[in-house]
Every structure is written in structure tokens, then in C-alpha cells.
């Protein structure tokens, strides 16, 4: 195993030439020439040679020109020492493979992996040459994986495998067979014929390549059609969704009135959640508390103290809020910001606070869900999801057949279609109406003039203020403050029957809301979870022929 620092060196292997000279006795004399281009300091190169189970590597040596280099061996790892800095060097390696040739009754073959999938270095240009003991024309030669269709047989019987670039992590076994008579002193591996089996193995590779080429052609043809069909499906789905949404918006704009504040079709906390990107912030708690004051369920005793006076008619999330603030945190049906601060200072209460907060949020979400503000398109979305998954599987098959342009197109369409299916939630008419009206309110309210604001009922003024507070919309809140400060508190704080508010809206509400907002923000920060935070290996795999293989590196 190479140490982790072995691949920290910046290098490229620009050229590798391997010459294998087959001997009559079955031994293979190998000469390898490796050209490395280094950027920065280096100590040498590494060659991993994993022999096949019935073979052995001996007499390993390394030279640069005529200078022999120091070699350290650790099992199958050879570390060749040659220090330098930002150089291009060529190192020659010499070794012999004992029993590298398998001899049968009719042929002898050299079937060898000079590298395998454990190799973590790319060879930019690799050539392997196999030379027989004597010249011959009786040659069978072919390669597997990256060596397939790279062989050239000369008239003398020499075979060259012109790999070109070989990426890391690839196999590339070579297989060369000659007549057995060329190896008279080699030991017989098996006394049986092997030529037919070798020829059959070569033909099997050729048949596989032909079949793959035919499949690739079929996938290329079908892939283009599939891409067009799914592009149309996605376009139709997007267009339909846009037209559906657009038709509702046009109808709503035609039915718009001069009424500034929308009617309260949902309780204020649910309205805030539905129209504010489904967010419920600490400001939303403050707005919900003051909304209970507006409705008369809660009485404001002082600027920071409240009393629950009526629990009748509360919806579920309001019940949870009242129990949370007035029963769990407060006492004697009263709640104050001082009590909240004292409660959250005790770490034992943090989990309960967050639990109640989550319960309150969940009840609001359930109320919005129960209001059926979204259309049920489950079947439509499931069909689109299944289509996208099918297209994704098809895109993988395109990649397997090296059709990468079609792969990228179909994968992109698959992701787009799946995303549409997951996020397509069209609102019902009521849902679209609520969303549209409150969006229009925010746009209009920013430019409202004092006379128009003065004409609003106390209830509408308070709803406008609390909506801005709960959504944490700075512009709406700022406008409310400007308008409220321009008027004095009414002489009577008691509402008329038409206002539906328990309190009149006046500038003191700004102070109360500010205190409530900052207090709940502080409580959330105090009780919330702590978000702070403290602060080329290489193993020979032997995945080539016969368990052999190897690779290259540097240190």
C-alpha cells in the first residue's frame, strides 16, 4: 500500500513504453520507459507490479540514462528514488516475469495485465510491444477493455498495442499467442490444445463489440425521438400550469375592488403562513398574541402584561398559543414579557418551549391544509413522476452506450420533469384569491395616503399592522408606524359595534408590538438549537488477468 502522501505530488505521466521480449524458456524480459512531468518538488516514482497467481517478478532495477537508481520494494510496490523540482524525467525499468508464458500442446500465450483498476494515474500515451523469440507469421493477438482493437501485428510477428491515453482506474489486459514450437525449453502448462479457445475468446469480443455498436445505433435513434417527446411533454405541462394560473389571476384582477384590506377568510396566523412563503417567525407569535387582543380574547393590562379573558371560540392553534403563554409560561391567567424572559433563562424549559412552538406551528399548517387551498392533482403528479423516473433510467442506458450528449439532454429533462411533478401544487380559486388579495394589499399599502388610512375601521388598521408584523415585512410595518404616529389616540378606546375590535389602534401599539417582537425573537434565540460548530492513498487491487495488475504513482 502506498502512503497517503504518495499522491500529494503534482505530476503527469506523459509517455509510457513497455517492451516485453518473450524467451524460449517461458520467461518474459520486460523493459518499461516512463516519462514523468513534475510540478514542484518530488522524491521519485512508484511502480506497482502485481504478478498473476502462477507467475513471479524478479530482477527489478531502475535507471536514468546509465545511472542506476535506488529501489525500495515492499511486496508488489517498487519505489524508485530520484529527487528533483519541476522537471520532466524518463526512468527505465527492467525486470523479468518468471512463468509469464502459458504453454499448451499447440500454442503458447502471453496473457498479462500491466495495469488494472487499482491504478490511480492516467497514462497520457501508452504503447506495449510484445516480441516473440523468433520471427513468425502465426500470431493471435487482441486486448480487453482499453486494449481492445489497439493491436497491430507486424510481418515479423511482433505485436504493438497502441493504447493512446489510458484513464486511471481502467483495465487493459493483453493476450498474444504463438505456435508452441517457439518455446522449446518452456515448461508445459497443460498438455491440451488451446488455440481454438483463444480464437473463440477473440471472436466473442468481436461479437460483443458488434452487438454493442448495434445497440448504440438503436439507442441513438430512439434517444432522439424520446428526447423530443419528453421535451414536448414538459413544455405542455409547463404551458398548461401557466395558463391555468394566468386564467385565475386575470379573473381576480377583473373582480378587484377598491377595498384595501382583504376579508379575513383565514385566521390571521394562518393567513400569514399561507401568504408569507410558509414561514412562521417569532414575529408571527407576537402578531398572533396581539390578534387575540384585537378579537377580545386577551386583555392588555399593561404594555407588557396580558390576561386571557375568554377562551370561547378559539381555533386549535389559538388554544395551543393560549395554553403555551398563559398556562405554561404565565400564571393566574396572565402572561408578561418578563415572565417569558425568566422562563427561557432556565435551560430546563428550552425543550418544552421548542415543543410548544412546534405544536403551534403544526396546528397552523393543519388549518391551512384543512382549508383545501390547493387542488388535488395527485394522480397527474404521480404519472409525471413515473415518466421522469423512466426517462432517468433510459438516460443511464444512453451513458452506458457512450451517447453522452443525449444522456445530458434526457437527464436534464428527467430532472426538470421530476421537479415539476414534486413542486406542482396549483392553488384552488379560494387559495389563489387569498394569495392575490394580500399581495395586492402589500403593494397598495406602501403608497396609501393618510385620508384613505384614516377611513379604515379600527379593526382593519389593526389587521394591517399585525399582518406587517407577522410577515416581518419592514415596508408595511414602517408605513403603519408613520400613519399611526400622525394621529392622536381616539378619545374613547372602546370600539363601536362596527369595528369588531376590542381595542382601538393607536401609536402605543407600535411600542407593544416592538416589545413583543423583540422578546419572542430573544426567546427563540435562547431556546433554539446551538448551531455553532467546532472547528493519494493507493492499494494494489490485482483486478487484471489471473489476479495480476499494477499501476503507477510518485512520491
Class from helix and strand fractions: alpha+beta
Annotated CATH topology of the largest domain: Immunoglobulin-like
Strand order of the largest sheet: 5-4-8-2-1-11-14-13
Coarse shape: elongated
Number of domains: 2
Total count of strands: 19
Radius of gyration: 40 Å
Q: Helix segment count?
A: 13
**How far apart lie the N and C ends?**
13 Å
Mean pLDDT: 87
* Major sheet characteristics: 8 strands, mixed
CATH architecture of the largest domain: Sandwich
Can you tell me the residue ranges where pLDDT is under 50 for at least 5 consecutive residues?
Answer: 1-7, 488-500, 531-540
Beta-strand content: 15-25%
Q: Roughly how much helix do the residues carry, as a percent range?
A: 40-55%
CATH C-level name of the largest domain: Mainly Beta
Defining traits:
555 residues, alpha+beta, Immunoglobulin-like, 2 domains, four-stranded antiparallel sheet, 13 helices, elongated
What is the gist of this entry?
With 555 residues, this protein is of the alpha+beta class. The chain contains 13 helices and 19 strands.
What does this protein look like?
The chain has 555 residues and is α+β, with helices and mostly antiparallel strands. It folds into two domains: 4-193 and 543-554, Immunoglobulin-like; 256-375 and 427-506, no CATH class. It contains 13 helices and 19 strands. It has helices at 195-254, 268-275, 282-295, 316-329, 337-345, 350-370, 378-400, 404-423, 429-445, 450-454, 458-470, 474-485, 508-527; strands at residues 10-22, 28-39, 41-50, 56-64, 67-68, 71-74, 77-85, 88-98, 102-103, 107-112, 123-131, 139-143, 151-153, 159-166, 174-179, 298-302, 305-308, 334-336, 549-554. The chain has an eight-stranded mixed β-sheet, with no helix packed on it. A hairpin with a 2-residue loop joins β4 and β5. α1 (195-254) runs antiparallel to α7 (378-400).
Amino acid at each position: 500500500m502506498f502512503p497517503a502522501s504518495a499522491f500529494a505530488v503534482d505530476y503527469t505521466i506523459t509517455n509510457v513504453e513497455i517492451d516485453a521480449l518473450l524467451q524460449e524458456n517461458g520467461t518474459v524480459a520486460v523493459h518499461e520507459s516512463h516519462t514523468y512531468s513534475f510540478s514542484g518538488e518530488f522524491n521519485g516514482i512508484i511502480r506497482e507490479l502485481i504478478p498473476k497467481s502462477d507467475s513471479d517478478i524478479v530482477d527489478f532495477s531502475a535507471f536514468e540514462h546509465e545511472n542506476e537508481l535506488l529501489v525500495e520494494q515492499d511486496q508488489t510496490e517498487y519505489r524508485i528514488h530520484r529527487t528533483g523540482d519541476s522537471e520532466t524525467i524518463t526512468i527505465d525499468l527492467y525486470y523479468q516475469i518468471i512463468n509469464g508464458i502459458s504453454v499448451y500442446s499447440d500454442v503458447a500465450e502471453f496473457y498479462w495485465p500491466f495495469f488494472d483498476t487499482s491504478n490511480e494515474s492516467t497514462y497520457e500515451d501508452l504503447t506495449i510491444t510484445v516480441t516473440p523469440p523468433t520471427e513468425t507469421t502465426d500470431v493471435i493477438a487482441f486486448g480487453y477493455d482499453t486494449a481492445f482493437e489497439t493491436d497491430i501485428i507486424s510481418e515479423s510477428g511482433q505485436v504493438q498495442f497502441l493504447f493512446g491515453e489510458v484513464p486511471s482506474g481502467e483495465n487493459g489486459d493483453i493476450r498474444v499467442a504463438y505456435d508452441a514450437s517457439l518455446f522449446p525449453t518452456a515448461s508445459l502448462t497443460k498438455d491440451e490444445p488451446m488455440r481454438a479457445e483463444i480464437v473463440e475468446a477473440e471472436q466473442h469480443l468481436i461479437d460483443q463489440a458488434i452487438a454493442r455498436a448495434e445497440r448504440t445505433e438503436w439507442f441513438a435513434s430512439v434517444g432522439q425521438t424520446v428526447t423530443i417527446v419528453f421535451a414536448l411533454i414538459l413544455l405542455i405541462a409547463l404551458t398548461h400550469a401557466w395558463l391555468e394560473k394566468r386564467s385565475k389571476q386575470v379573473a381576480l384582477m377583473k373582480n378587484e375592488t377598491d377595498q384595501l384590506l382583504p376579508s379575513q377568510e383565514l385566521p390571521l396566523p394562518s393567513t400569514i403562513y399561507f401568504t408569507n412563503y410558509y414561514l412562521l417567525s417569532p414575529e408571527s407569535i407576537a402578531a398572533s398574541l396581539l390578534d387575540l387582543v384585537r378579537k377580545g380574547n386577551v386583555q392588555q393590562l399593561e404594555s407588557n402584561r396580558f390576561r386571557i379573558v375568554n377562551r370561547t371560540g378559539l381555533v386549535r392553534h389559538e388554544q395551543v398559543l393560549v395554553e403555551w403563554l398563559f398556562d405554561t409560561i404565565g400564571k393566574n391567567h396572565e402572561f408578561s414579557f418578563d415572565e417569558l424572559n425568566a422562563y427561557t433563562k432556565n435551560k430546563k424549559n428550552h425543550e418544552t418551549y421548542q415543543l410548544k412552538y412546534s405544536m403551534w406551528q403544526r396546528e397552523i399548517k393543519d388549518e391551512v391544509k384543512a382549508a383545501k387551498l390547493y387542488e388535488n392533482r395527485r394522480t397527474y403528479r404521480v404519472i409525471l413522476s413515473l415518466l421522469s423516473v423512466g426517462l432517468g433510467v433510459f438516460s443511464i442506458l444512453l451513458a452506458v452506450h457512450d451517447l453522452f450528449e443525449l444522456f445530458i439532454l434526457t437527464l436534464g429533462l428527467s430532472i426538470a420533469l421530476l421537479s415539476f411533478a414534486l413542486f406542482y401544487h396549483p392553488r384552488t380559486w379560494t387559495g389563489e384569491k387569498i394569495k392575490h388579495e394580500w399581495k395586492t394589499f402589500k403593494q397598495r399599502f406602501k403608497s396609501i395616503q393618510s385620508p384613505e388610512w384614516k377611513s379604515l375601521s379600527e379593526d382593519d388598521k389593526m389587521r394591517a399592522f399585525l399582518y406587517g408584523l407577522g410577515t416581518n415585512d419592514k415596508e408595511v410595518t414602517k408605513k403603519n408606524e408613520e400613519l399611526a404616529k400622525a394621529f392622536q389616540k381616539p378619545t374613547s378606546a372602546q370600539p363601536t359595534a362596527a369595528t369588531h375590535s376590542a381595542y382601538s389602534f393607536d401609536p402605543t401599539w407600535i411600542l407593544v408590538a416592538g416589545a413583543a417582537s423583540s422578546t419572542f425573537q430573544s426567546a427563540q434565540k435562547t431556546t433554539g438549537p446551538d448551531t455553532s460548530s467546532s472547528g493519494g492513498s493507493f492499494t494494489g487491487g490485482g483486478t487484471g488477468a489471473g489476479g495480476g495488475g499494477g499501476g503507477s504513482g510518485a512520491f
